[in-house]
Amino acid sequence: MSNGLSNTPNDGADFGPDTLLGATEPGQYGPPYTQTSGIQEALNYAANISAGVILGPGTFYVSTAILLPAIGSGLYLRGTSMHLTTITQAPGYTGTIMQWANPNTINTMYYLGHFRVKGSGSNAGTYLIDLSQTENSLQGLLEHIRIVHNGVAGLRLDGNEDTVTLKVDLDTSEPGTVGVSWHIPYGAAVDIDSFFGTGGYFQAQQFTFIGTVFGPRQWVNLYSISGQNAIYNFIGSYWNNGSYNPLIYVYPASNSSNTIYANFIGCMINPSGLQLGNPFFYNPTTTNVTVYAKFINSVIQSNTSANLFGSYITGYAEFDELTQPLINVNVNNASVSTPAVPASGTAQHNTYPFPVTVYLSGGSATQVQVTKYSNTYTVWSSSSATAIPPLSVRLNPGDSITITYSTAPSWIWMPA
Predict the structure, then answer these.
(1) Which of 41, 85, 154, 353 might form a disulfide with 23, Cβ 3.0–4.6 angstroms?
(2) Residue 397 pLDDT more than 70?
């Protein structure tokens, strides 16, 4: 027990502000003194004995980045609480507070939690916590962390897939500052009950937000992926606004015609009824991107008229069991071109990334069939050729309709 950091005997090795810079074991004191209030030396020592590091209450000043040891799996750094343990930039230091010692190795099953990090000065492009990886890492957990970034970017998790953030509070007094960057084009991740007060950038095969609160300065940026679709699920999430209007930026991937799927389940978007971003889905580029949005038991409203989709977006939205009617939201779904009726007995597929409804009638036919997931169903038939009565058929993406006829009927395709 040393450095006055603990009142409990035999509770493990103690390190503190008077620890020798680069100490390899307890009991080594400076000068020169540690540049991380002893955290770096404690992590290095713990890595060698396969132990975790626990920070007591208080403020820990760092004048260089804490390098999280690349031990493969099991890194553990925990404070007392996000209100009692603070890791902050020392006066004059504006760099990163913690990052991987080696971002080119895989770091899995790591844990960071129950502390606050605080930026004391602006430094564009710097993240207070930068856990970016060139090799995708798996199954990390960040919980109960408050990041007060004050003009500095907050949290970078690029390359961390199958990772969970739980009750992470990203707050800043500066508008337009990046809160979180999380790009994992070939993986999935989850956030639970966090507060993202400023801009967030996300790219994943599947990203799920559960109970996430997006603050008044929050612009959500969703990226599509080359060669595959991207799915973003918002479950019980909440958008509110102040001086900024809630909106979602959507970005195309180069050489990609794939779709961004955005599912809103039990969400409240702009519940205070101020102005919604116009449009709500906004593409800042001139390259088209396809967005398929589905709203289930959700609220989305505006005090002035706002389009759901902006320019350079092929957008389609479905609404199911809304908790209240849409208010001042113009659902400007993409138009659908009606294809020519193919030859008798030839399947016509729905090649759109969203459902369509086919309205058909007339002609002289004996059968109308729909194929869904390799299963074919007869939706209308007659023992002799006759006019098809007015009929509507819903086709999900990839479904097909086949008409057997002697005289082609008339049909029109519309978004479902």
Answers:
(1) 41
(2) yes
